[in-house]
Amino acid sequence: MLKQPGRQRANPRKFIAPFIALALFICSVQTLHARDKSEKPDKLFSSNDTLDITITGPWRDLQRDKKNQDPYPATLEFTDALGKPVQLDVTIGRRGITRQRVCDFPPIRLRFNKENVKNTMFRGQNSLKMVTHCEKAERFEQYYILEMLAYRMYNLITDFSFRVRALDVTYVDSETGNIDKDRFAFLIEDDSDVAKRNDLKKIDIAKIKLSQLEPYVTNELSLFEYLIGNVDWSPLRGPDPAECCHNVKLVGPEPLQKGDTAYPIPYDFDSSGLVNADYAIPPDGVPIKSVRQRLFRGYCFFNDTLEDARQKFLRQESAIYALLNNESRLYSRTRRNSNKYIEDFFDDIKDQKDFERRIIRKCRK
Fold it and tell me: Which of 85, 79, 88 is nearest to 49 (CA)?
C-alpha cells in the first residue's frame, strides 16, 4: 500500500521576506530623508561665525553715482558649511540717509531671487541690509564692529531684536577688475523674519499711541538705548509722516486693532556713544553736547515696569562685557574705551540713587 504524502509545511521565509523588504525600503527612505535634512545648510542668522563672501559688481559706478538709487546687477559667492561653492545672482543698491552723505562707500541693500536661494543659507530672503566699512581708514571698521556688537548686546536682552551676521568681504569690480579684500561688514536680519520668530507680523503704520506699545519690551529698548548712549530714535513716529517710526520697527498683530499690543525693535546705532563715530552729533533739541553723553529717553508712562528691565540688564552684565572682550577685531584701545563706557552704564543702574536720578527722573512725559 502506497504511503500517502503528508501535507507540506509552509516556508515561513516566503511570508516574512516581503515584510523585511518593505521595512528595509522604509528604513532607507528615512535614512535618505534624515541625511538630506542634516545636510541642509543652517540659515544665515543661526550662526555668529564670520561668513567669507565675494561680491562682484559695478562698485565704482555705485560709489560715484550718488544720485542713482536703483539697484545694480551683481553676483555673491561663498562656500557653505558643507564645503560647497555657491554663486547667487543678486542686486546691490545704495541705502541709508546719513551714511550715504558722509561715506565714500555707502551701506548696501542686497536683493535676492527667492527661487535662486532655495537650499542655501540665504533661503527665504528677499532683501537684506548690509552695513559696510564707509571709508578706507581702519578706524571706520572699528565703528561698525561696535555697532554689530550693539545688536548682539540687545540679543542678550530680548528676542524682539535684530540678529546680525558678520562678513569678511572681497569686493570685485566687474568693470575694472579691481579687488578690495578682507573688508568687515555685517548683514541685518529682515524685520519680517524677526516678527516670524516671535509668531507675529511686521506692522506698517504711520504712527502709534504710547498706550499701544508693550510696556516691558519698550522699557528694555529704552534702557538699551541708554546703555549704548543713543538718543536718535522714536517708537511713536518718524520723520516721514506716512511711516512709523524713527530707527525703530514695529511687530505685532497685523492689522493692529484697538486693544492690540505692538513690540518696538531698535536698529541703526552708528550715532550712539558706544560707536562714537566722527560724524555723529546729537539731534536738534536734545540737551546734550556729545553723543558720548547719556540721556535716558524712556517714557514715564512705563516707569512701573522699569525695574524688570533693570534686573534683566544686571543679569546679563558679564555676557555684555564678554562680547567686547572676545571680539578679536577690536583694537585694544577701542576695547578699553568701550568697556569703560559700558561700566559707567552699570554704575548708573546698580546704585539706586543714581538709577532714580539719571534714569527714572529723566523719563519723557
Answer: 79
Could you tell me the sign of the dihedral formed by the alpha carbons of 20, 25, 30, 32, in that order? positive
**Beta strand pairing call for 51-57 and 164-173:** parallel
- Tell me the backbone φ, ψ of residue 361, rounded to 5 degrees: -75, -10
Banded model confidence at residue 41, pLDDT cuts 50, 70, 90: confident
Q: How would you write 312-350 as a 3-class SS string?
A: HHHHCHHHHHHHHHCCCCCCHHHHHHHHHHHHHHHHHHH
Distance CA 35, CA 17 (A): 27
The dihedrals phi and psi of 110, each to the nearest 5 degrees, come to -95, 135
Q: What is the distance between the alpha carbons of residues 206 and 151, in angstroms, rounded to a whole number?
A: 25
| CA dist list (Å): 198 to 83, 132, 160, 161 | 32, 28, 7, 10
Q: Under a CB-based contact definition with an 8 Å cutoff, are residues 165 and 171 in contact?
A: no
Look up residue 27 and give its three cell numbers.
528604513
Percent of the chain with pLDDT over 90: 83
For residues 160 and 352, the answer to whether their CB atoms sit within 8 Å is no
145 exposure class (CB count in 10 Å sphere: 0-12, 13-18, 19+): buried
Cis? peptide before 245, omega within 30° of 0: yes
What's the grid cell of residue 261? 499690543
Of 89, 87, 90, 129, the C-alpha closest to 247 is: 129
DSSP label at 135? S
Q: How many Å apart are CA 225 and CA 272, to the nearest integer? A: 8
**pLDDT range class, residue 137, cuts 50, 70, 90:** confident
**Three-state secondary-structure class, residue 78:** strand
Mean pLDDT within 327-341:
98
Report the interhelical angle of 317-325 vs 306-315 (nearest 10°). 50
Cell for 112?
535676492
